[in-house]
Automatic annotation (TrEMBL):
PANTHER family to which the protein is assigned, alphabetical: HEMOGLOBIN AND HEMOGLOBIN-HAPTOGLOBIN-BINDING PROTEIN 1-RELATED, TONB-DEPENDENT OUTER MEMBRANE RECEPTOR
Name of the featured protein: Outer membrane vitamin B12 receptor protein
Record carries keyword Transport: yes
GO cellular component, one term: cell outer membrane
Lipid bilayer topology: Multi-pass membrane protein
Pfam families from the UniProt entry: Plug (PF07715), TonB_dep_Rec_b-barrel (PF00593)
Compartment annotation: Cell outer membrane
Amino acid sequence: MKLLKLTFQFVFTAIVSINNLFAQNIADSLYLPEIVITEKTADREIRSTTPFQILSNDRLQALNALQLSDAIKHFSGVTVKDYGGIGGLKTISVRGLGASHTGISYNGLEVTDVQSGQIDIGRFSLDNIESVTLNNGQNDNIFLPAKAFASASGININSKTPEFKNKEKLNGSLSVKGGSFGLFNPAMNSSIKFSDKIAATFSSELTLAKGKYPYTLYYGDAGNDSSSVEHRENSDVKNFRLETGLFADFSPRSKANINIYYYQSERGLPGATIFYNTDSFSKQRLWDNTFFTQGHFEHSHSNKLLFQINAKYNNGYLKYLDPTFLGGDGKIEDIFTQNEVYGSASALYRAFENISFSLSSDITHANMFSNRKSFAAPSRLTSHSVIAAKWVSEQIMATSSLLYTQTFESVNIGDPASNRRKLTTHLSVSAKPFIDNNFRVRAFYNESFRLPTFNDLYYPLVGFRDLQPESAHQFNLGVTYGKSNGSITLDAYHNRVNNKIIAYPSGNLHQWTMLNMGKVHINGIDISAESNINITNIADLLLGLSYTYQDAIDKTDRNKITWNHQIPYTPKHSGSSRALINLPWLDISYTLIWSGQRYSNAYNSKEFRVNGYTDHSISLSKIIKAGKDSINLSFEILNLANNNYEIILNYPMPGRSYRWNISYNF
């Protein structure tokens, strides 16, 4: 509480000071070339030079999703590794490049984990989310922090901002969700207007679930051998999230905001299912505390010159306990803490009517500590600098960028990893060949790399100091077409990953080491379509569809048996569909997630095959007006077919379940 109080005091003092410094009489109208406020969601997807997908708040409400990971499964080209249940770990891979190549941003600034490099998106609920976007390659908006240009793909989570009607000073919602397997999920969101220039948001949420869901364990091929009904053990979860934001519009030329985020979680880590010994379930526990505060300030010096400053502090605490480990201590208890300080400055110059340039420079300092004896306690100083250009006209949009990255490694114990420097490029273009037809052709090339994580480099008995960064090269050619009632996009792509970091056993199965031994070639096709149909004057039908074909094969060594085999947990065929019927008295939603077969091992033999699956869900919702306020009621049936499918081998997902939600909006 003392830390929160000091932070608010600092923020309020800074805002008042900046307001006095920049407040001035400025014309009410200001044209910002990088921001299109009135543009429709479908128009942004069609015009983009790189594949760009959006799930707006309305779409999110219709997806039967409790967590962000449930919604992201509807993006084409995305593979979510899900270990089952609310508390199971969930990571994202886009177009087969791996989770470490996917940047996760929250309100424009990247969410990081220097320990593992992978963000567990299961910790993000959808209760306070306004929209989620996915970019392959880079964003067409070049007025961004330099770090935003560093990833092969990016998911940006945008939380709700204050919105007020007429003269209201306060609005928000109170909600509670409940359902199968002991789910209890109350939440509160509110927006407060202090003055015409300053407003704030507050959001809190608690998630409790026992997670003890039934599943069928087959002793042999499903349907051809004996089976038993078991219950998933050690899958409980207790999550608490608290957020607040302060927003200031000092003048038409200057604005700022600051966000404070706190999340804590305790959960069981359910183990793999074991034949004939289901009582020996995992007792591993995981505690996760995350706190960050981030600030953004933007000022328009003129219609041609804009500046922005971003800053962030992140603190992470992770405790892992395995009380059944057969070792000298009789358990494994690891505690890791990490700290990160980040700063960024950017400038955008609109040189002419059609062309803009941007410069951005970031610096990040991160470190990690552990209770393990002789732990290296590494630190990393990273700088990113980028120069970017953008051309915009009615028929052509093009962007390019040049990013320079440099790192400086240090440790408290032992030898540090090598310092790294890298220059990467990006080029993309979208062309509209016919003036009266919203048909576009687009192409892009993007080069990126990901640094080895602290686990890769320094984890005891595993880390390897001489690891080279993974590099990724992306090529894309696509077409888009849009009309007032729908849109369709089709993209073909080729990706190459070099120096892929892979864990290999060294000596025995309890001692592993990280090596640069991987090369992967990925060829694929992404298709997405959406249409809005007026059935009658009082009924609308929204249809959405996505499909992905992905041939992601190992090209490491032609003399090995895994040569030209599909990489693990990457299905060749996958997709999703959704339908929403809006009626005056009821809204009916249907969603489908499906995936073809995958392999749990780099060698694609029958014993490592994971069967494909389909997941059908439906929901019914109703809005009841109560004066100026409203009450939202919804009921959902998830996994309608009661299919205990697996995304990760031996980690069954829940079967049929039910969920209800009551929300009061004021």
